[in-house]
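Format notes (please read before filing issues)

Several people have asked whether sequences and structure tokens are stored in separate files. They are not. Every record keeps both together, in the order shown below: the sequence lines, then the token lines. Line labels are part of the format and must not be stripped during preprocessing.
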Amino acid sequence: MTALSQLTWITSSYSGGSGTECVECAHTDTGTLIRDSKWADGPVLNVGADSWYTFVRSLRRGAPSA
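Then the structure lines:
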């Protein structure tokens, strides 16, 4: 896997402007990595490609959260 520092991290457009709730994502060959932008060296959630696709598709459709 590519080193985390070499990935292109994208800040969510829904992150708060106050800097208190920022989420970043980086796409990989196998899925998407998600981290807290305030804690770049902290834990990273690895979501498989199929799960990420289903999640994004649900958001676009406006599906209610579980």
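For reference, the curators noted about this record: The beta strands are 10-11, 23-27, 31-36, 45-48. The chain has one helix and four strands.
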